[in-house]
Amino acid sequence: MVHFVGAGSGAADLITVRGARLLEEADVVIYAGSLVNPALLQYTREDCEIHNSAEMTLEQVLAVVKAAEAAEKTTVRLHTGDSSIYGAVREQFDQLEELGIAYDVCPGVSSFCGAAAALKAEYTLPDVSQTVIITRAAGRTPVPEKESVRSLAAHQATMVLFLSTGLAEKLQGDLLAGGYAPETPAAVVYKATWPEEKVYRCTVETLAQTVADNGLTKTALIIVGGCLGTEYLRSKLYDPGFTTEYRKGSDS
Ligand code: SAH
Q1: CA of 80 to the centre of ligand 1 (A)
Q2: Which fold has domain 2-106?
Q3: Which fold has domain 111-228?
Q4: Of 97, 122, 144, 212, whose CA is between 20 and 30 Å from 241?
């Protein structure tokens, strides 16, 4: 059995209770060493066999899993944040299906949620944006043209950009050309929820400069949108006049 486990965005105590239990029980752990906090390995048994996938290919990962299966061992494949976001898990799932190896998935706190916590932000703010676009700038890994940052920017929704700090200058140009006003609030969150977390607030116009001035190259998210500003409407849900399934409002 293979358990894909979301490690959470950084802090070792942000893994789910289920994820921590699976780590405690694992015979073999393959963790994404480039981003997973090594402190999480403290949850494993002393005799647990540990591999760092940052130094491995997909084939090597599968070889470790196959050997563990042959020995009737349980494997945890530990991915950073939540494995559904840029986790390269689908190719592993499909190979395991083909090999007839059972697996399941335990979700984790994605770094975009960790960043919202660091910013004390609500991404879906009434009258500002009810949509969160999770995307990345096109670099060595291409992005389908129909999802270019420039075209997505037309919505002026809340946008969270993964894997894009190294491309900040081009990104800023695309955000502006696509439709965000230069003064739109933005932020760069470095190592959200890690002890060394840093938050840099700026605007779309000063984004590339902020990234450059602070030497931010990786393990950072860029967040753009009016939700980081000061203007919004209060929610309907908690409005005294608004009736819900659970509460009768004064207007009805
Ligand atoms: N599955 C992960 C994302 C993996 S892609 C998740 O759900 O968060 C790797 C990228 O995620 C990094 O380049 C960076 O852009 C972002 N990232 C991961 N952890 C981060 C953190 N703690 N703080 C800021 N960005 C992070």
Answers
A1: 7
A2: Cobalt-precorrin-4 Transmethylase; domain 1 (3.40.1010)
A3: 3.30.950
A4: 122
